[in-house]
Design goal:
- By secondary structure, chain A is mainly α.
- Chain A has a single domain, classed as Orthogonal Bundle (Arp2/3 complex 21 kDa subunit ARPC3).
- Chain A has seven helices and no strands.
- The N and C termini of chain A lie close together (about 10 Å).
- Chain B has three helices and 14 strands.
- In chain B, about 30% of the residues lie in helices and about 30% in strands.
- Chain B has helices at about 1-30, 35-80, 265-279; strands spanning about 85, 100, 105-115, 120-125, 140, 150-155, 160-165, 170-175, 180-185, 195-200, 210-215, 225-235, 240-250, 255-265.
- By secondary structure, chain B is an alpha+beta fold.
- In chain B, strand 12 and strand 13 (about 240-250) form a beta hairpin.
- In chain B, helix 1 packs across helix 2 (about 35-80).
- Chain B has two domains: about 1-25, no CATH class; about 105-279, Rod shape-determining protein MreC, domain 2 (Thrombin, subunit H).
- In chain B, strands 3-4-7-6-5-14 form a six-stranded antiparallel barrel. A six-stranded antiparallel beta barrel of chain B has the order 8-9-10-13-12-11. A two-stranded antiparallel ribbon of chain B has the order 1-2.
- Classes of the chains: A mainly alpha, B alpha+beta.
- At the A-B interface, helix 3 and helix 4 of A face helix 1 and helix 2 of B.
Chain lengths: ~170, ~280
C-alpha cells in the first residue's frame, strides 16, 4: 500500500517536471509545430490504482492539470482536460473490462494486464484527454478539423513516449 | 458522517467533476486571452440576440397602439375627401363658386370578432355609442384597397355589432363604375369572396373586371367606395336581368381595421323618407 502511494507521489512529481521542463521545450514540425505537442503527463491519471475512489481520481486530475497549467501559462485548460480524464476513467475501464473483471488491488499497468489491454486502455485514455484538451484550447468547434489533426499528431508522438516508458521500466504499479 | 463518506464514494466523482470543470472554465475565461475573447463574443452574441428578440416582441406589443393612431389619422383624411363632402351651395352664373360642407365623418374601429363561414355572419367592433356609432351606419375596410364590410346593427357604449355583407339579410346599393348602372349586392352564402349583383337589366353590356362601387343612394356609404369587380355574368333564360358574380376586393377573413361611416345629413334625409314610409 505504502509503496503504491510513494510510487504515485513520485510519478506525479516526475511527470510534472518532465512535462514542463523537457516535453514543453521539445519542438518539431517547423511551421506545423502547433500540431506536434508532447503531452505525456496524463499517464499519471492513467496509472492511478484501480481501487482509488472516483472522486479522488477526479481531484488528482485537477491537481496535476493545474500544476501543468501554472507552467504552461494556460490556467484551467490542462486542468479541465485532466478532470475530464479522471471522470471518464471508470467508463473506459468498464468498456475494456477483461473477462473475470479487474483485480482491484492492481494498478492498470502493462505488467499487470498485458500488452494488448494496456495499449487499448492507454491509447483510448490519451486520445480522449487530447481531444478534450484541444477542444478547450480552441474553445470553439468552428475549427473542428484542426482540433482533430492536432489531437491525432500529438497522440501518436506522445503515445510513443508512454510505450517506451511502460516497456523499458515495466512498473508493476 | 459515514453516510457522507458513502455518498462521496458513490457520487463524488460526478460532483467533483462538475464542480472542478466549473472552476476550470471560469479560470480559463478569466486568465486566457484567446478563450476570453471567444467567450465574450459568444456571450455578446447570445445576449445581443436575446435583447434583439425582446425588442421585437415589445415592438409588437406597441404595434396595436401605433396602428390605432394611424387608423385614426386615416379616418380624418378620408373625411376630407371629395366624396365625403356635401355641396351646400348651387352653382351661380358661370362663376365656379363651390363650397363644400362636411357630410361624412369616419370613425376608426378594430374588428374584435368575425366570422365568414356561417349563413348569416356578424362582426363585433371595439367602438360604440361613446365614439359616435349608431345603428344603420356603413362599415368600410381600412387598409389594402378598401372594400365594404357591413352595416352596424346594434351598439353598446363601447362595442358595436355589425351585420357583415356576408349575411343573407344584407342588401347594399352599388353601381357599375363605368356605366353607372345600379343594383343591389347580396350574398348567396357558400363563398366569402363572391357576392351576387342583382337588378342590372340584361341589355346592359358588361365585361369581366368592371369595377363595382357603392352608389351613394343610401346614406350608409359615400358614393364611390370600391366593393369589387365583376367575375362572371350570364343571363338566365326567361330572365330580363343579369346574374352577376362579384369578386370582393377585400378579404373579409383578413380585415382587422375598419371605418364606420357617419352621415351627418342622415336625419336630414330621414325627414323626407318619413312620408315615404307612411304611404
Amino acid at each position: 500500500m505504502n509503496s503504491i502511494l510513494t510510487t504515485n507521489i513520485v510519478r506525479f512529481i516526475v511527470f510534472v517536471l518532465l512535462q514542463v521542463l523537457v516535453f514543453k521545450g521539445i519542438s518539431f514540425g517547423g511551421e506545423w509545430s502547433g500540431y506536434f505537442n508532447l503531452i505525456v503527463y496524463p499517464i499519471f491519471i492513467i496509472l492511478l490504482p484501480l481501487r482509488l475512489p472516483h472522486f479522488l481520481v477526479v481531484l488528482l486530475g485537477f491537481l496535476i492539470g493545474i500544476s501543468i497549467d501554472l507552467f504552461y501559462d494556460s490556467l484551467g485548460v490542462h486542468a479541465s482536460a485532466s478532470v475530464f480524464l479522471g471522470f471518464i476513467r471508470p467508463i473506459v475501464l468498464a468498456v475494456l473490462s477483461p473477462q473475470g473483471g479487474y483485480n482491484v488491488s492492481f494498478s492498470p499497468t502493462k505488467a499487470r494486464f498485458g500488452n494488448t489491454w494496456f495499449l487499448f486502455y492507454a491509447s483510448s485514455m490519451l486520445f480522449l484527454h487530447l481531444f478534450f484538451y484541444f477542444s478547450v484550447e480552441a474553445f470553439t468547434f468552428y475549427h473542428i478539423g484542426q482540433i482533430f489533426l492536432k489531437t491525432l499528431f500529438t497522440f501518436f508522438i506522445s503515445m510513443i513516449f508512454i510505450i517506451v516508458y511502460q516497456f523499458s521500466l515495466n512498473p508493476l504499479d | 458522517m459515514r453516510n457522507l463518506i458513502f455518498l462521496l464514494v458513490k457520487y463524488g466523482g460526478v460532483i467533483f467533476f462538475i464542480i472542478l470543470e466549473i472552476v476550470c472554465f471560469s479560470l480559463i475565461v478569466k486568465n486566457n486571452q484567446k478563450q476570453k475573447e471567444i467567450y465574450d463574443s459568444n456571450q455578446q452574441r447570445f445576449t445581443g440576440s436575446f435583447y434583439n428578440n425582446w425588442d421585437k416582441m415589445t415592438h409588437w406589443w406597441g404595434m396595436s397602439s401605433v396602428a390605432d393612431s394611424l387608423a385614426a389619422e386615416n379616418a380624418q383624411l378620408r373625411a376630407e375627401l371629395r366624396n365625403a363632402q356635401f355641396l351646400s351651395t348651387i352653382l351661380k352664373d358661370s362663376a365656379y363658386n363651390e363650397a363644400s360642407k362636411q357630410r361624412y365623418t369616419f370613425i376608426q374601429a378594430r374588428i374584435v370578432s368575425n366570422s365568414v363561414k356561417k349563413n348569416n355572419n356578424n362582426l363585433r367592433l371595439n367602438r360604440g355609442t361613446d365614439h359616435g356609432i349608431g345603428p344603420h351606419m356603413g362599415v368600410i375596410a381600412a387598409g389594402g384597397r378598401g372594400g365594404v364590410v357591413g352595416i352596424t346593427t346594434a351598439t353598446s357604449p363601447s362595442h358595436t355589432r355589425v351585420m357583415s355583407i356576408l349575411n343573407r339579410n344584407s342588401r347594399i346599393s352599388v353601381e357599375i363604375k363605368s356605366n353607372r348602372e345600379f343594383g343591389s349586392l347580396l350574398w348567396k352564402g357558400n363563398n366569402y369572396q363572391t357576392m351576387a349583383l342583382e337588378d342590372i337589366p340584361k341589355d346592359v353590356v358588361l365585361s369581366r373586371g368592371d369595377t363595382i362601387q357603392t352608389s351613394g343612394f343610401s346614406s350608409m356609404f359615400p358614393q364611390g367606395v370600391i366593393v369589387g369587380t365583376i367575375d362572371t355574368s350570364w343571363v338566365e333564360s326567361g330572365s330580363n336581368v343579369h346574374t352577376i358574380n362579384v369578386k370582393l376586393i377585400n378579404d373579409l377573413r383578413k380585415n382587422r381595421y375598419v371605418y364606420v361611416v357617419n352621415d351627418l345629413l342622415k336625419e336630414d334625409i330621414e325627414i323626407i323618407e318619413e312620408d315615404l314610409k307612411d304611404e
